Amino acid sequence: MKNYLIILSAGMLTFAASCASVEQENDTSALESRIDSLEAEIAELKTELAPGLAVLMNQNYDHLKKLEVAINEGNWEYADFCLHEMDETFEQIVDLHNNHDELVQPADTQFKAFIFPTFEQLEEKVDTKDQAGASQLFIELKTNCSKCHTANNHGFIRL
Ligand code: HEC
User: Fold this and answer.
1) Closest CA to ligand 1's atom 25
2) Is residue 124 part of a domain?
3) Whose C-alpha lies nearest to ligand 1, atom 41?
4) Is residue 118 in some structural domain?
5) CA–CA separation, 7 vs 60, rounded Å?
6) What is the pLDDT of residues 95-133, one digit of tens each?
7) Which of the listed residues 49, 65, 84 is the one where a domain comes to its end?
8) Which of 24, 26, 96, 117 could serve as a FRET partner for 137 with CA atoms 20 to 30 Å apart?
């Protein structure tokens, strides 16, 4: 009789344990599908709320104009600030619009070709407060922005 009781309670324990694990599996799969739907919602919001390519380009243009003034006035701190903001905008464009419809090649590939080499040299000139060098590279940078517009069938956007 004692043996039966032991076997019975062991059996009940095993049963309880397996119920708990089924419940746990259900919880996990419910959480997983919740995560999936939240991820889908975030992706949708990102597309809906993110600034468009033209908005980010205009943002870059604002900083480009302010950069020109800052270089002319020898306001190196502001020039540095503008370059930093532009760098962030390039990153945002790559993050949000790397394969935008209006681009013939991914944005990051084209930034490497048209922008970054000149941009990095300009950063150096600003760091060393070299006004003549910075002014020259500024013109080069602005020209390269327009070159990318031409390469992407937007040659009419001349800066
Ligand atoms: C990868 C190539 C590329 C580079 C590099 C690039 N642009 Fe653009 N830009 C575009 C494209 C494509 C458009 C058109 C966007 C659209 O149709 O939504 C555009 C649009 C613009 C516009 C027009 C936005 C409007 O609403 O009127 C401005 C201003 C602009 N770019 C400024 C700049 C500046 C400043 C730089 C350099 C710092 C630059 N762009 C570099 C591709 C580029």
Assistant:
1) 54
2) yes
3) 145
4) yes
5) 76
6) 999 999 999 999 999 999 999 999 999 999 999 999 999
7) 49
8) 96
pLDDT tens-place string over residues 3-51: 555 555 555 556 555 656 677 788 899 999 999 999 999 888 877 888 9
Structure tokens, 60: 């870059």
The pTM assigned to this predicted structure is: 0.80
User: Which residues contact ligand 1 via a Cβ below 6 A?
Assistant: 53-54, 57-58, 60-61, 64, 102-103, 107, 110-111, 114-115, 145, 148-149, 152, 154, 157, 159
The CA 109 to ligand 1 mean position distance, Å, reads 15
What is the biggest distance separating any 2 CA atoms in the chain, rounded to whole angstroms?
101
Question: What is d(CA 117, CA 123) in angstroms, rounded to the nearest whole number?
Answer: 10
Residue from 115, 123, 149 whose mutation best tests the ligand 1 pocket (most atoms within 8 A of CB): 149
List the domain range (segments joined by +) for residue 37. 1-49
- Name which residue sits closest to atom 38 of ligand 1, judged by CA: 145
Q: Which residues contact 135 (CB under 8 A, 6 or more apart)?
A: 71, 72
Alpha-carbon distance of 121 to 145, in angstroms, equals 15
Q: Which atom of ligand 1 is nearest to the CA of 61?
A: 35
Shared domain check, 82 and 38: no
